[in-house]
Structure formats: structure tokens, C-alpha cells
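Researcher: Next entry in the queue.
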Amino acid sequence: MRRFSSAAFKDFPKELAILKKLNSPSKVQDFLNDLKINFEKDGETCRSPLMTLRTKKAHCMEGALLAAAIFWQHGRPPLLLDLKTTNDDNDHVVALFKEGGRWGAVSKTNHAVLRYRDPIYKNIRELAMSYFSEYFLDSGVKTLRSYSAPFDLSRYGDEWLTTKENLWNLTDALDTSKHFPILKGNSARLRRADPIEIKAGKLTDY
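Model: Structure for this entry, 206 residues:
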């Protein structure tokens, strides 16, 4: 893996200092939690880590990109995990990390669920499946259908770290990358989420 080069942030010392300070997954998650949600009121965005730091807001993909950049700065591979749903729900993206041979994830979300995962999962499928029962519509219908292989951002150089342009190339590449199906057979067999779970799922930060 090609290592993160601080030279990418040579013209942005303030932002680089933030990256260097966030030296654990827990600190990264706390930092993402403090960012406001990007509701994309002026149109869809996929901002670089630099622009997310400057705007102080993020949606899940932007939060995952920022977390991956921070991990890369600290010698971890910059990996994303894409969670794909049915057409009537929204996909979710998290940043992966590994400690003690086990996988965990950092997540930016406005809701009470689909959040941080401690590094206790022995493989990516196990981690992805931890989101299954939390992923449902207001009707209680569960919607998670597939998950990606770890998506390595180091293959895309370092321009994505600081560009002022939207990173649609990365969203497209992630979307079309290898995914693994979760369900085999009839989804009608799935039990709907309980009313209290649905109620809890409506809790938001912003």
C-alpha cells in the first residue's frame, strides 16, 4: 500500500493538524459526530476530506472519506465499505479499520442506528451483517441487500484528499465495485422491525 503523504496537505496546515490529532478510531468517530449533517440543500455533493473539514458538515460518504483519510495519515489503509439496499431506501458507506485482527467501522449518520462498530468482527461479512436488523424503512421492512469488498482508496492517488471538485468518480467506482449478496431466496420471510425499533430509528442528531 502506498503511504499517505502529508505533502498533499502542505498548503493546508490547519487541516493537516486536525488529521494528525485524531489518532484513534474512537477520536475519529467523536469528530464525525460533532460535524453537522450535510442535507445537500443546494444540490448533491461528494466533498473531499479537505472541503468537509472546511464546511464542517458531512453526509455518510463524505464522513467515510474523511475517516479513511485520517486512517491513512496514521498508517492504516483507507478502506470503505458500501452497504446497498433495496431501491426504496438509501445506501450507506462506512470507513473500515482493523485492530487485533478484528474489523470495526466508523460511520457518519444522522440517525440512532447504522453507527460506529467496535473492532470485534472477524471478517467483513460479519461486520456488514451487524447492520442488517437496524436497516429498515418506516414500515419496518428490512432493506439491506448486499455489501462491498473493502474498497481501497489508496489506488486513486492523493488528489481526492484535497480537491475542491466533487468526487463522483469515487462514488461511481464504489457503487460498481464487487458486492456480495446478503439474501438468498424470498425476502418475504423476513420479520419486520418492531414498532419500538421504528420509533428509535426516527431519533436524529440534527
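Model: The helical segments are 13-21, 25-34, 49-55, 60-73, 124-129, 168-175, 195-201.
Researcher: Noted, moving on.
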